[in-house]
Amino acid sequence: MDGAENLSKRQLQALQTREKLLNAGRTVFLENGFQKATMTQINKLAHTGYGTAYVYFKNKDELFTELIETIMQKMYDVAGLPFTPKTKEEAFTQIKKQTRLFMELSLEERQVMKIIKEAIGVSPIVAEKWSQIRARFISGITKDIEYVQKAGLARDDFHANLIAKGWFYMNEQLMWELVLGDIKEDVEAVSDHLTRLYTGGLYK
């Protein structure tokens, strides 16, 4: 019984240490950017023992990918909202809402998203993580397209996966431009135009 109790305490301590390192990592990345951030800085800010960060994460790239996953979970939740429209109008309303929420969440995490953009360009580990994130979103979009095709709402002469990729890449590109401040249009305008373009081409 004592052994199980001690194991439980160790597990709890490990979870707390991991959380401290992730929180410290977020702060260090935001202050220094991805390339200039170091595991030493993260360890120091977390007030953990020398080298402790390496017990939990192989390198800063691995720690950063876990931070990305935490942020992306909110977007996964949006992407996972029920999608069973009965009409083209219902589909438009739901798709526009999802698109707007996707963009709004990106802007809420704008500073971290900027670091993600930087990291994708310099870290193969982060780039691979982003590819996995893309694949997850595209898979979900593909299923939604297949649903409306079977329901007779959308054209069935389009390849669902190819359209899903195109839709995600358009959203991703405009998301980055919003995050980086490269376009002046607001989220509502971006969401409306994207959705009109998408549904206008795909739906009957």
TrEMBL record:
InterPro entries according to UniProt: EthR_C, Homeodomain-like_sf, HTH-type_Tx_Regulator, HTH_TetR, Tet_transcr_reg_TetR-rel_C_sf
This protein's UniProt keywords: DNA-binding, Repressor
Entry keyword Glycosyltransferase: no
Domain HTH tetR-type: 15-75
Residue spans binding DNA: 38-57
Superkingdom to which the source organism belongs: Bacteria
Entry-linked SUPFAM superfamilies: Homeodomain-like, Tetracyclin repressor-like, C-terminal domain
Name listed for the protein in its UniProt record: TetR/AcrR family transcriptional regulator
Organism per entry: Siminovitchia sediminis
